[in-house]
């Protein structure tokens, strides 16, 4: 089957290329139509109380998206006119200020203390803006833009929805730079390690086609996260480029055996198909392990990237041969000397001192396993954003001027009596760190008659058998203080309504912390087990996967342990993604060297000579592959102002180099020393020696 496909593809390369280009049209349309989700908290499991509470805020309260507008040094008349302008903005369902509650004619000193403390601080005042759609929706994004357009320079719009909007704008601004820098740096890396100036351009064109196919087919998922959107292209470029290199090198080998380059390419496709299918399985397994995260952001990244690897392999088999044949002349015409060092002396040194390198291999686990387990991690999402971003500046004003470091929303039954609500609110106010409590009951308690409270306000706080309590906390999201506060708040609230739901950014983040700690362990175990099994089947061995996975795991421990020694604090999602992706993407380096090692053993070389030849033959491929992954991700890591994206990319870039160094300098020694054990625990590892054959015959 593959033989016929290879023959057909190589006979009409221009037609194949034309079809590939034509398919880009629906791919681009699909990519444009795919929704991008900028709210990480929406990926929390739906069975959590905080996410269930968030669903209730959206329906029936329509409070899932709320922002706070601070107006500084402006007269009450301006703020009153401003709130009327804001209420007319499409997508805004409600806006609340003192004019809704008591009117602007009443002097500030005569406004009830609870309302005054909530809406006034020094020379500034605050209003609450409620949107019709969820915070990450297009409608709310557009509404936030329009709200800002009717405000002057004395206004500061704060809230999680506004942070999402600014994040979207920043990602959209930076994304073209990510791709451009990845392409330029990857081209530079390949130009240094390959012997043609045109060949990298052909490879990049093929991978670019595969990336567009991947983004186009995301439409079947409905939406992807902004993190996936930001890193998928550069990550697919980095992890699938070595498939292109493998096919081309096989094509170069076959050219000497055939007069017609098309026949040589057909043979290269046949030979490469099995190898690429097997090699890509480890990378796919690493990405699919992310799908087992409770935080479904992992599933989002895992599915998109696993699909990207499959499409990358497909493009290498189906499209790249046509491009190579079409551009065969320019590739050969613009050749140059590859700038790669020779590694014979280095490998000879490593083999002679193999026991020392094995000892180093074992010793390195001790400090870096400890460092990896004790590296600092943060969960507060706004810490990953530029602190000069408008929404972050506004949020900081909200915290400093109004003591609103976080806001909790409690959804309760509406049939609780006034006595129960007064007792509940009194106990909530007594909790450490609670600054203010707002509910229908608390507003009535200030002496405002029920009929004086506007319907818009009661509609915000009471709907369809539920009532809402808004609680301002002085404790920051993701802090130990707010976690304890939420625990105590839950105990108090559940006494009055066992079915009550506590939600808000702090509650959602607390669940994010507990969920992520489990995710890290689960995904690590699954990726290790899956890749162990693939390598075991590939080599027919129990010991080879142990050696290879242990080697790359050391590289991962070093990568994840470096922040501990540098005192850096990294975003919570980075270790989980790196643990799976680095293992899946770079274990191929170890597989490549081990495969060549076995080939040399089967040619009759002893283990020291075999590993020296295998290492020398593999080092250039490992360096080229790791440099492409390094360059594709490093540029994004250096320029991105969003630290979640920057951290993931820098760690991937660093991980590629560390895996390459470990594979070049440590793996040969480990394979050489462990070879006798590997031979006993593997099927068809190497031909038996004469003494082994005679011993076997005597036993029989």
TrEMBL record:
Coiled coil: none annotated. Keywords: Cell membrane, Membrane, Transmembrane, Transmembrane helix. InterPro entries: MMPL_dom, Mycobact_MmpL, SSD. Its main location: membrane. The chain crosses the membrane at residues 175-194, 227-248, 269-295, 301-327, 357-379, 524-557, 569-591, 611-636, 648-671. It holds the Pfam family MMPL. PROSITE patterns: SSD (PS50156). The keyword Nucleotide-binding does not apply. It is a multi-pass membrane protein. Residues 526-673 form the SSD domain. It is found in: Cell membrane. It comes from the Bacteria. This is MMPL family transporter. It comes from Dysosmobacter acutus.
């Amino acid at each position: 089957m593959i033989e016929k496909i290879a023959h057909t593809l190589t006979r009409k390369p221009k037609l194949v290329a034309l079809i590939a280009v034509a398919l880009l049209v629906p791919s681009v349309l699909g990519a444009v139509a795919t929704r991008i989700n900028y709210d990480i908290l929406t990926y929390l499991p739906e069975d959590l109380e905080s996410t269930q509470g968030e669903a209730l805020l959206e329906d029936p309260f329509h409070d899932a998206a709320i922002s706070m507008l601070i107006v500084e040094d402006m007269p009450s008349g301006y703020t009153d006119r401003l709130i009327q302008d804001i209420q007319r903005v499409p997508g805004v369902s409600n806006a609340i200020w003192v004019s809704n509650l008591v009117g602007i004619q009443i002097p500030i000193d005569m406004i009830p203390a609870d309302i005054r403390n909530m809406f006034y601080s020094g020379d500034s005042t605050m209003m609450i803006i409620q949107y019709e759609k969820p915070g990450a929706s297009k409608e709310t994004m557009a509404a936030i833009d329009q709200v800002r357009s009717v405000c002057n320079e004395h206004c500061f719009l704060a809230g999680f929805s506004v942070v999402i909007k600014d994040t979207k704008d920043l990602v959209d601004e930076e994304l073209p730079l990510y791709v451009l820098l990845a392409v330029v740096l990857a081209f530079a890396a390949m130009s240094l390690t390959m012997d043609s100036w045109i060949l990298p351009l052909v490879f990049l064109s093929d991978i670019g086609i595969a990336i567009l196919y991947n983004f186009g087919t995301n439409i079947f998922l409905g939406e992807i996260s902004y993190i996936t959107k930001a890193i998928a292209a550069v990550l697919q470029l980095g992890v699938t480029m070595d498939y292109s290199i493998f096919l081309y090198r096989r094509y170069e080998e076959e050219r000497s055996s055939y007069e017609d380059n098309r026949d040589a390419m057909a043979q290269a496709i046949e030979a490469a198909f099995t190898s690429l299918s097997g090699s890509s399985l480890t990378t796919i397994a690493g990405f699919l392990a992310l799908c087992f995260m409770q935080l479904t952001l992992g599933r989002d990244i895992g599915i998109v990237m696993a699909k990207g690897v499959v499409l990358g392999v497909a493009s290498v088999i189906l499209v790249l041969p046509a491009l190579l044949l079409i551009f065969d002349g320019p590739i050969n015409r613009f050749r140059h000397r590859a700038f790669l060092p020779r590694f014979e002396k280095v490998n000879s040194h490593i083999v002679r001192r193999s026991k020392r390198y094995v000892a180093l291999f074992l010793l390195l686990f001790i400090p870096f396993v400890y460092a990896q387990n004790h590296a600092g991690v943060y969960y507060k999402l706004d810490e990953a954003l530029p602190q000069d971003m408008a929404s972050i500046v506004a949020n900081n004003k909200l915290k400093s001027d109004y003591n609103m470091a976080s806001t909790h929303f409690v959804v309760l039954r509406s049939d609780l009596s006034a006595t129960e609500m007064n007792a509940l609110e009194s106990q909530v106010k007594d909790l450490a760190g609670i600054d203010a409590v707002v509910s229908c009951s608390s507003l009535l308690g200030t002496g405002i008659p029920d009929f004086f409270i506007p319907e818009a306000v009661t509609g915000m706080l009471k709907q369809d058998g539920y009532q809402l309590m808004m609680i301002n906390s002085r404790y920051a999201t993701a802090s130990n203080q707010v976690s304890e506060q939420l625990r105590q708040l839950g105990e108090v609230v559940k006494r009055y309504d066992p079915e009550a739901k506590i939600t808000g950014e702090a509650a959602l983040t607390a669940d994010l912390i507990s969920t992520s700690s489990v995710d890290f362990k689960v995904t690590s175990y699954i990726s290790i087990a899956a890749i162990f099994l693939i390598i075991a089947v590939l080599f027919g061995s129990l010991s080879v996967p142990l050696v290879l996975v242990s080697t790359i795991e050391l590289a991962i421990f070093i990568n994840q342990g470096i922040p501990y020694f540098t005192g850096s604090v990294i975003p919570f999602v980075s270790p989980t993604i790196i643990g799976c992706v680095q293992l899946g993407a770079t274990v191929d380096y170890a597989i490549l060297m081990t495969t060549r090692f076995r080939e040399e053993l089967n040619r009759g070389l002893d283990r020291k000579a075999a590993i020296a030849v295998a290492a020398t033959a593999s080092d250039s491929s490992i360096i080229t592959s790791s440099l492409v992954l390094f360059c594709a991700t490093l540029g994004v890591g250096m320029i991105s102002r969003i630290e979640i994206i920057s951290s993931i990319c820098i760690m991937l870039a660093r991980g590629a180099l560390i895996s390459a160094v470990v594979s070049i300098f440590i793996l040969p020694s480990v394979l050489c020393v462990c070879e006798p054990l590997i031979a006993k625990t593997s099927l068809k590892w190497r031909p038996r020696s004469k003494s082994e054959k005679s011993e076997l015959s005597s036993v029989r």
